[in-house]
């Protein structure tokens, strides 16, 4: 097929390439069909045998921009859509300004802010391996948003996300689509504290109020008045967010972000990142630079994407992406690995007809058990984090541990809200936290050595509520070279090298 | 519409051309030269002149020492020329950026919905800016009078404690309110009907200590966030009247559980509240003295679409012919076909016919 074009290019030189391709396929039907068979065979073998896989991948890999290739080959790929009746242009662009790995809520937010700043100033490509988000942490979360953290930057990030959701109709509206709505429930979080933690809670509330968050401290008497259905044994006080806190549907937010991104010209690629390519070093003293990423799409073909900046938004699997860039397995400066790993958490749906209805906030018990209402039909979501590292569930699959509900969650909830003694477990699901086991806090900003690798990881369960703020911070650091609104410098990767953790008490 | 778009294209291209062409730049330089001559007389500018001369010498020296090929030199020269008279660089570059930013924006003009959307977004942003809580206003007038001015000026109505009349803006657009802070003037009731208030305006209402009554009819921009932001009024608010606010949903009504002193809630024509009956029953459970008005019996049934359908079916079977025909021919038929046991009965009726 290809040889035909090159040998007789004189005859067909004036025809558009798409027509040439169709002509070729008509004339050399037998050849093309045999080509297809050989291709499918090679795909089968690549699935079966590991040795064959490496060989076949090298053959199929399509190089990045900047390397010399036959122009015919490039044109052929560009016009492939003519015969398959798809839009023109290749599936994976060969170069982009910013490559974002992971198209979940954080990746989409980064892409949104980059494009929001200037839609045509730079190209943005998002690589997402699971476009229906069956494994994404944000989809499998409770969808809560709170301003009650002990680190001021976390409070500011959450407050910014609230502000963004408040004006979502201005921010994310797209033509020919209905106005976005995330179904925000304005219920607020209620943190309960035993006497020993009361002082800490009061200090936190003071700090949050100074930052402008609408949080109030309630004494035991006020709590009893406000929530007559609650058992307050062993509780000294509680903090309640009266405004801007609550929960919403994460799926609707991600969908709205994605639609907006597509309308602004972001390219979403359905594929998986398999590795990075480093730039050729001229001098040995020069630092390494990542130059291209290798993306394997569904059909098994690998594409190289050349980029200027890569943003790691891979959520629980961020450490794998970092390892591809030799972070954690290299020498000297690359010794320190990204301390992020997936941790499985369960969310249980219970039905309790006698439970609290409209005035049920997002209750967080001192024991770590949480409870929130789901809809108005007497359904509730509850769950808990394991207290010990040794009790962490296996992360190989998404199976739910129902014993955990019987042993920990149900007694905890029923102790706080006695009505839950008459409740019935309806269903449950499991999701991953992108857990930062160093200090349970955000990792953001460039890697100290690979300067064009940015992190937006380790959010440890509050990724959804910080996503928008983190996206804006990364945009500012990429385009302006510094943070303009919320200074997140202390969350940089450097703290793992200097071993200075940032303590956050409010991890649920 | 099309003509309007064409005009936009024309003016935009024209200005871009002007902006790019050197001729206009020179023209504008000339027109500015008069003012620059005047400026030269002032002593401060003499210093600048010296430095400009020095710059020129340096540039000429640089150009002599580094001769560049023809096309590049031209641009270089232009660049240095423009550097030389940095104060008078073209007509548009001296303008503030926010006035010229539209020149650089791309609008899709084939599709008028894009324009409408941009307009809608702009309107929302402007309204939000307009409705913000302003400290200077409160400093002069106090919370209550500031809120009254804020509402009456934008087309609403207010009523003070101990007075019978509602205060509204008159035909000439004058606001019948005092312009200084007066003690013991407290707002009792607020009417936001037929206005474009957004959720931000709740910040103005929140500090009011005597507010008992809020009415909102036909407010297209009021949404759940507005009701959620009214929580500081939880001990005082007694009457709330919501009618035809298309953005309010179930989640907004569920925020009302804060108002422990609420006596009466009137709801009607809320399109996006799915379970209005359930919401009102739950609110009545939660707030002891609450009376909900504006609900029909149908809406209070567990699933009102089904129950009304059943009732209609029974009436049809009993021989109310007009309704029978309506129900068979009309759009209700589709609703019946979705419920299995009613579908069977529908089949029976057809056989009878």
TrEMBL record, chain A:
Keyword terms: Oxidoreductase
Molecular-function GO terms, alphabetical: oxidoreductase activity
Any one GO biological process: mitochondrial respiratory chain complex I assembly
GO CC list: mitochondrion
Domain of life: Eukaryota
Annotated ranges, domain FAD dependent oxidoreductase: 97-475
Biased composition (Basic and acidic residues): 41-62
Location of the region described as Disordered in the Swiss-Prot/TrEMBL record: 39-62
InterPro entries: FAD-dep_OxRdtase (IPR006076), FAD/NAD-bd_sf (IPR036188)
Annotated Pfam families: DAO (PF01266)
Function: Required for the assembly of the mitochondrial membrane respiratory chain NADH dehydrogenase (Complex I). Involved in mid-late stages of complex I assembly.
Protein name per its UniProtKB record: FAD-dependent oxidoreductase domain-containing protein 1
From TrEMBL, chain B:
Source organism per UniProt: Biomphalaria pfeifferi (Bloodfluke planorb)
Protein name: ATP synthase subunit s-like protein
Family to which this protein belongs: Belongs to the ATP synthase subunit s family.
């Amino acid at each position: 097929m290809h040889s035909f074009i090159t040998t007789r290019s004189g005859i067909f030189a004036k025809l558009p390439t798409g027509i040439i391709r169709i002509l070729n396929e008509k004339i050399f039907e037998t050849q093309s069909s045999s080509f297809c068979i050989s291709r499918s065979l090679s795909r089968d073998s690549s699935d079966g045998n590991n040795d064959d896989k490496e060989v076949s991948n090298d053959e199929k890999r399509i190089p990045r921009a900047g390397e010399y290739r036959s122009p015919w080959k490039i044109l052929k790929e560009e016009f492939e859509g003519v015969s398959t009746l798809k839009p023109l242009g290749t599936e994976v662009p060969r170069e982009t300004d910013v490559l974002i790995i992971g198209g979940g809520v954080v990746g989409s937010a980064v892409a949104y802010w980059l494009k929001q700043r200037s839609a045509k100033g730079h190209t943005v490509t998002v690589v997402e391996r699971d476009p229906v988000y069956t494994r994404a942490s944000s989809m499998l979360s409770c969808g809560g948003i709170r301003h009650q953290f002990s680190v001021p930057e976390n409070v500011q990030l959450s407050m910014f996300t609230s502000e963004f959701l408040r004006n979502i109709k201005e921010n994310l509206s797209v033509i020919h689509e209905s106005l976005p709505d995330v179904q925000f429930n304005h219920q607020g979080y209620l943190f309960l504290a035993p006497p020993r933690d009361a002082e800490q809670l009061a200090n936190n509330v003071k700090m949050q109020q100074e930052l402008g968050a609408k949080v109030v401290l309630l004494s035991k008497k006020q709590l009893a008045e406000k929530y007559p259905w609650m058992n307050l044994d062993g509780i000294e006080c509680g903090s309640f967010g009266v405004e801007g806190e609550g929960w919403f549907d994460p799926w609707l937010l991600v969908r709205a972000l994605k639609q907006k991104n597509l309308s602004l010209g972001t390219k979403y690629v359905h594929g998986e990142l398999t590795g990075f390519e480093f730039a050729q070093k001229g001098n040995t003293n020069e630092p390494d630079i990542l130059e291209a990423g290798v993306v394997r799409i569904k059909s098994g073909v690998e594409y190289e994407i050349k980029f200027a900046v890569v943003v790691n938004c891979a959520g629980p699997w961020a450490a794998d992406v970092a390892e591809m860039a030799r972070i954690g397995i290299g020498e000297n400066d690359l010794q320190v690995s990204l301390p992020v790993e997936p941790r499985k958490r369960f969310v249980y749906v219970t039905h309790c007809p006698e439970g609290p209805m409209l005035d049920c906030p997002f209750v967080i018990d001192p024991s770590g058990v949480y409870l929130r209402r789901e809809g108005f039909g007497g359904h509730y979501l509850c769950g808990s984090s394991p207290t010990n590292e040794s009790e962490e569930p296996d992360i190989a699959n998404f199976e739910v541990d129902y014993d955990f509900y019987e042993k920990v969650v149900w007694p905890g909830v029923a102790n706080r809200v006695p009505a839950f003694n008459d409740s019935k477990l309806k269903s449950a699901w499991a999701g991953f936290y992108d857990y930062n086991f160093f200090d349970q806090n955000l990792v953001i900003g460039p890697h100290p050595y690979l300067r064009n690798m940015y992190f937006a990881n380790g959010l440890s369960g509050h990724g959804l509520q910080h996503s928008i703020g983190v996206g804006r911070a990364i945009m500012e650091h990429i385009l302006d070279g510094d943070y303009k609104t919320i200074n997140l410098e202390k969350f940089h990767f450097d703290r793992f090298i200097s071993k200075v953790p940032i303590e956050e008490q409010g991890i649920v | 519409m099309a003509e309007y778009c064409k005009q936009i294209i024309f003016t935009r291209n024209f200005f871009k051309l002007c902006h790019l062409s050197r001729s206009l730049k020179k023209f504008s330089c000339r027109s500015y030269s008069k003012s620059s001559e005047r400026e030269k007389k002032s002593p401060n500018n003499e210093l600048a002149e010296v430095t400009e001369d020095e710059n020129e010498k340096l540039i000429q020296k640089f150009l002599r020492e580094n001769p560049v090929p023809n096309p590049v030199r031209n641009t270089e020269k232009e660049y240095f020329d423009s550097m030389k008279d940095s104060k008078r660089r073209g007509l548009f570059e001296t303008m503030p950026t926010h006035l010229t930013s539209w020149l650089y924006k791309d609008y899709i003009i084939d599709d008028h919905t894009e324009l409408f959307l941009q307009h809608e977004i702009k309107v929302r942003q402007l309204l939000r800016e307009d409705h913000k809580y302003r400290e200077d206003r409160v400093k002069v007038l106090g919370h209550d009078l500031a809120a009254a001015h804020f509402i009456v000026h934008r087309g609403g109505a207010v009523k003070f404690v101990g007075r019978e009349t509602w205060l509204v803006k008159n035909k000439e657009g004058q606001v019948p309110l005092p312009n200084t802070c007066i003690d013991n003037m407290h707002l009792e009731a607020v009417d936001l009907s037929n206005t474009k208030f957004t959720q931000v305006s709740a910040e103005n209402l929140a500090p009011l200590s005597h507010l008992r009554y809020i009415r909102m009819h036909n407010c297209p921009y009021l949404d759940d966030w507005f009701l959620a932001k009214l929580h500081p009024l939880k001990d005082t608010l007694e009457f709330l009247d919501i009618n035809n606010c298309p953005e309010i949903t179930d989640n907004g009504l569920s925020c009302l559980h804060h108002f422990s002193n609420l006596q009466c809630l009137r709801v009607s024509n809320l399109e996006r509240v799915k379970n209005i009956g359930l919401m009102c029953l739950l609110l009545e459970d939660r707030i002891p003295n609450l009376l909900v008005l504006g609900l029909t019996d149908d809406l209070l049934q567990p699933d009102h679409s089904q129950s009304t359908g059943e009732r209609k079916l029974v009436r049809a079977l009993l021989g109310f012919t007009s309704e029978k025909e309506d129900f068979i021919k009309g759009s209700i038929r589709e609703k019946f076909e979705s419920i299995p046991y009613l579908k069977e009965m529908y089949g029976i009726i057809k056989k009878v016919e």
